[in-house]
Amino acid sequence: MKSGARALGVAESYAPDAERSTLAGAVVRADRVVDDFCFRSATVGGTDVTEAAIDIWESLDRPDVRYVLVAGVALAWYNVLDLGRLHDAVERPVVAVSFEASGGLEAAIEREFAGDARDARLAAYRALPERHALDVGGDTVYVRSVGCDDPDAVVRAYTPEGGRPEPLRVAREAARAADDYRRTPDA
C-alpha cells in the first residue's frame, strides 16, 4: 500500500453516566500522517451511531480516503453499527476492528434490553458479517468487513506497531480529548 493512502478511522469515548458518546473521525495516511478530524455524537444506548458515522464521512468530504475503519460494531453501549449501510453511504470498503475476544453480543443485548429495543439491536447485530481473528504485531484483533477484498491487508497496512490500526488509535485519542473537553464545566 502506498504511504499516502488514506483511511478514515472512527472511534468513540463516553463517561459511564453520559447520555451522549463522542465520536471522532480521523483521516490518517498509511505512513501515519494525520490529515483531518471530525467530531459527532451518538446516543448512549440508542440506535443512531450509523447516522453519526455517515455524517462524519459527509462532513469531512474527503474523496481521497480509500478505506473506513471503525473501532467495533456496538459503540455507545450497544448502539449497533450497520456496516452495510455505512458501506453503501461512503462507497468505500468498511472494516470494523475489535480488540477483545468474546462469544458475541447476543446474550448481553438480551440481558440489557427488552421488547422492540432488544429485537432491533439483535436484528442489526445478526445482520453483521462474521468476524475473524487476525494476528497483528503480536496482538490479536477481530475483523469484520463489507466491500473489502482483503481486510487483513488493510488492517496490517495501517498498523505500524502494536495491535491497533493507526486511524483507530488516533480517532480514539481524539474522541477521548473531545469528550473530556465537552464534559468540562467551563468549556
UniProtKB/TrEMBL annotation:
Matches recorded under Pfam families: Endo_dU
Domain of life from the UniProt record: Archaea
Family recorded in the similarity comment: Belongs to the UPF0215 family.
Protein name: UPF0215 protein GCM10009037_10040
Listed transmembrane segments: none
PANTHER family: UPF0215 PROTEIN MJ1150
Listed InterPro entries: Endo_dU
